[in-house]
Amino acid sequence: MSRLVTIVPALLLALQACSAVSPDDTSDGGSAPRRDGATPIDERDGGGGPIDGDGGTASDRDGGSSGTTDGGAPASCAPACGSGTVCVDGECVERVSGVPGIDSVLLGDPTRFDEEVLISQNPDLSWRPSRIYKWRDFVQAVTTMHTRGIGDMRLWLGEPGDPEPARSRYALVNLAAFLAQSMKETIRYDACDENNWDMTNGYAISNACGQLGQDYAGAGYDCEMACPRDPSMRMTAVTHAQWYGAPGPLFCAPNATLASVSGRSDGRTGRWNYGFDCYPYPASQPGFVAPGGDAWTRPQCEVYEGQRAGRYEWDGSGGSVEGCCWWGRGVIQTTGRCNFGMLNHYLGAGHLDPARFPRPAGALYPDVNFCRDPEAICASTEHPELKWIAGLFYWMSSVEPYSRDGWVYKDRLRAFVDGGMTDGTFIDGVSGIVNRGCHNPPCGTGPLDGAADRRANFELVLTTMGLR
Q1: Which residue of 41, 98, 420, 432 lies most exposed, with the fewest beta carbons within 10 A?
Q2: Does pLDDT of 9 surpass 80?
Q3: What DSSP string describes 325-361?
Q4: pLDDT (tens digit, 9 = 90+) per residue, 420-436?
Q5: Picking from 23-27, 271-275, 400-404, which range would have the lowest pLDDT averaged per residue?
Q6: In this structure, what is the dihedral angle of CA atoms 447, 211, 218, 237, given to the nearest 10 degrees?
Q7: Nearest of 311, 380, 391 to residue 145 by alpha carbon
Q8: How confident is the model at residue 73, as a pLDDT?
Q9: Distance (Å, whole) CA 331 – CA 190
């Protein structure tokens, strides 16, 4: 804990301040946005100087070079590394940690992990391998956060002085606990972007701004490191729910941009009418490819592949989505302007006054501006590991250093391993931290959601890793 405070005090203080309550998870996928303590990191508004450019058009997405950049940023590997290797500073190497017991699991055959662990549920409740979460991307993210990290903070894979095979078990259990939470939060839904899941307002288009009464750009998600407000931002989510009539992807755009489809000058939008039937189901026909571009410009009933019902209805029932580009993204749903601002400062292009907020040496992704383009987490083709990186950033800063009322994460993990890996209270405590912000919910935010699923996920990952 003190080590984290020494290294990145502003990060830890911001995370502690970002303690917004996470709403109950939903059953239609993509669950509720995650927060610091209640899941990923969190956000607020304001703080820091303006960023260059007009913001949010994603024009600079994937625009980085492959060489080492200013500040000692890592070089990428081109072509991509082959099986059994990962990219470290521009070279493909057969090493994640240098510990055989760890590396043999992570760099071994990915098939079983892709086909049995990283699986998603179809609308008919059958299961299939995830289309967006892949083991190789996860291993690359683990390698990057362990070998490069943020400043002196590294993803924990045991201590160098830990004897074998205990160190390997500590490291793999840490990763298994992370995966168990990720499987529940997003992987089972194949969601990278937050789904429009709040039906209390009729699946309002303005759910992009915050669901169940939240405001992802507002004061409840603010901190000094937050991305600046930018009403010119315009983007559409990459992923969305898939059930019959499921709402189309979340999007944000200036009021003036949407006036042509809403017919309104006050910025009000509408809702997704999930009961509208799309017969003869053009989006379900063989060979159909969903159109790209802005969601609101796509033909009715052709908003996404497989759509069989639903449409946007611009009846004024939803609020403005101007500047509402901060919905949850990534494997543990990083949400809001504070969280994206911290990602941008510590991992990305940066946007803050360096006199007040010194930049860590060698930012991992100086070519990615998470403030201009938060959608890069889900859309980047150059950095497909970003959807994992965002979640690991939360894990390193909020779970690994967790210590409250005598419950210390690493101590409990060691005790779990040393005790024969039979104590179910360990994963329940971790689930509480991620889902509700404390190891012993309810802690003012409600009961733990999906405890049984999280336990089962943990057991599955441990078995697949060969620890059972």
Answers
A1: 420
A2: no
A3: ----BTTTTB-HHHHHHHHHHHTSS--S-TTTSPPPS
A4: 999 999 999 999 999 99
A5: 23-27
A6: 120
A7: 391
A8: 58
A9: 9
Q: How many domains does the chain have?
A: 2
Q: Are 134 and 118 in contact (CB under 8 A)?
A: yes
157 and 39 in a single domain? The answer is yes
Q: Give 74's pLDDT tier (boundaries 50, 70, 90).
A: low
pLDDT mean over 69-78: 63
Q: Which two tokens stand for residue 8?
A: 């990145």
309, containing H or E segment: strand 309-313
Please name the residues in contact with 339: beta carbons below 8 A apart, sequence gap of 6 or more: 18, 35, 36, 40, 41, 42, 43, 221
- Cα dihedral: 119, 122, 125, 130 (round 10): 0
Residue where a domain stops, chosen among 313, 337, 372: 313
pLDDT at 8 over 50: no
Structure tokens of 246? 């499921």
Residue 464's alpha-carbon distances to 108, 115, 117, 181, 402, in angstroms, are 11, 11, 8, 16, 27
The verdict on 289 and 382 lying in the same domain is no
Whether residue 264 has pLDDT greater than 50: yes
Is residue 10 domain-shared with residue 152, that is, in the same domain? yes
Percent of the chain beyond pLDDT 90? 78
Domain co-membership, 211 together with 138: no
First-to-final CA distance of the chain: 31
Note the pTM of the prediction, 2 decimals.
0.85
Q: Which of 34, 8, 23, 5 is nearest to 327 (CA)?
A: 34
Which of 262, 289, 313 represents a domain boundary (last residue)? Answer: 313
Using the structure block, give the residue that is written with the tokens 């993990």: 413
**pLDDT confidence bin for 6, thresholds 50/70/90:** very low
Transcribe 43-91 into DSSP letters.
--S--S-PPSSS-SS-TTTT---SS--TTTPPPP-SSPP-TT-EEETTE
In three-state secondary structure terms, 104 is helix
Residue 307 forms part of a structural domain: yes
DSSP per position, 155-209: -----TTSPTTHHHHHHHHHHHHHHHHHHHHTGGGT-SBPP---GGGTSBGGGGG
Cα atoms in the 13 Å half-sphere on the side-chain side of 179 = 30
For residue 120, what is the DSSP state?
E
**For residue 22, is pLDDT > 80?**
no
Rounded-to-integer distance, Cα 228 and Cα 247, Å: 28
Q: Which domain holds residue 270?
A: 199-313
Flag whether 363 is in a domain. Answer: yes
Same domain, 42 and 87: yes
Residues 203, 187 share a domain: no
